[in-house]
Amino acid sequence: MTIHIQENKDLQTARRTILVAHVLLALTTLGAFFGLGAWLQKSGGHAERLSGFFTSPLMGVLLLCMLAVFVFQVMGYYKLAKVSRNLLIFRCIAFPYIADAILSLLALMLFPKASLDQMLHVKSITFLLYLYYSYRLFDELSRVTQDRAFKRGVLLIGGALGLLFLLANLGPALVANWGILLVVSMVVGWGMIFLGFVRLKQISTP
After folding, report:
1. pLDDT tens, residue by residue, 113-135
2. pLDDT of 18-42, one tens digit each?
3. What are the φ/ψ torsions at residue 28 (nearest 5 degrees)?
4. What is the DSSP string of the chain?
5. Which residue from 53, 58, 137, 190 lies 20 to 30 Å from 69 (Cα-Cα)?
6. Is residue 17 a contact partner of residue 75, using CB atoms and an 8 Å limit?
7. CB-based contact 154:190 (threshold 8 Å)
8. Residue 154 sits in which domain range?
9. Which residues have C-beta within 8 Å of that of residue 3, sequence separation ≥ 6?
10. What is the CA 56 to chain-centroid distance, rounded?
11. Which of the given ranges, 107-111, 126-130, 162-166, has the highest pLDDT on average?
């Protein structure tokens, strides 16, 4: 069975809510990027002072923005999963957040005086979960909407992030040379996913 967006108000609401979540995520990411850049410039480029950024008022604003992104994502994808009768769509959004919360709580309980580096190691695990379930989500969306932009977009983002991580381990100079190109690739990938939702016209149900 195929549900057309012009005939279903719930599908229209789901699309609008998800688009708002994507716009908020883009603005939050830009805010974090420029805020971190300004903080490093203010601190004289000393990376060891980075911990101060995470206790600054700007970090509080970014956390509120991320909370808004979370709420809009959960609302939008829940409604989309409900309309399409496809639980996998909602599960791919909800599970990484739940795993992130559980792992962060366990880390704080086991290592109450954990350093920033130790917490980043924990976050790297949840980051991999976010990547995996993002791929599962957009692969499923490509299947049920017959729009390959979702899958191509997430593959482009994942590939760029993988290369960025590899270059960061090989040397900072490589990141400086190729970082901009990889960031542009991620923006293009995000744009493809955003475009997929903009032109969403129908979705298949089991």
Report:
1. 766 666 777 778 888 899 999 99
2. 999 999 999 998 888 887 777 767 7
3. -65, -40
4. -EEEGGG-HHHHHHHHHHHHHHHHHHHHHHHHHHHHHHHHHHTTT-GGGGGGGGGSHHHHHHHHHHHHHHHHHHHHHHHHHHHHT-HHHHHHHHHHHHHHHHHHHHHHHH-TT--HHHHHHHHHHHHHHHHHHHHHHHHHHHHHH--THHHHHHHHHHHHHHHHHHHHHH-HHHHHHHHHHHHHHHHHHHHHHHHHHHT--EEE--
5. 53
6. yes
7. no
8. 2-204
9. 11, 83, 84, 202, 203, 204, 205
10. 22
11. 126-130
| Residue that has been written with the tokens 């980075």 in this structure | 50
60 near 70, Cβ under 8 Å? no
Residue type, 206: P
Q: What is the pTM of this model?
A: 0.86
